Amino acid sequence: MTFQYHPEAAKELMSSIQYYEEKANGLGAKFLDEVEEAIAQALAHPESGSLLTKSDRRILLVRFPFEIIYDVSETKVPERLKFCTLSPALFQPLFISLFG
Fold it and tell me: Is 0.85 topped by the overall pTM?
């Protein structure tokens, strides 16, 4: 299974990485690592996120005030999982899509 960031999401993700890197050297890389770990968790175990709606689930990042919201309605096709947003608290959502 592979994934692809929405073009605007890639810009927002890079902006967030840059923001954390400016706060402390290496913090941006730690943020990206945690985002990638959460995506890997959702890919490996789509039902592991907290249920928000009938088809949407959420994974909260541990060290950063972000959440990843993804759609599990298409999990009947196991190679595909659609990520809807990566949202920092009180900021614009970061849109991510995954394609198998």
Answer: no
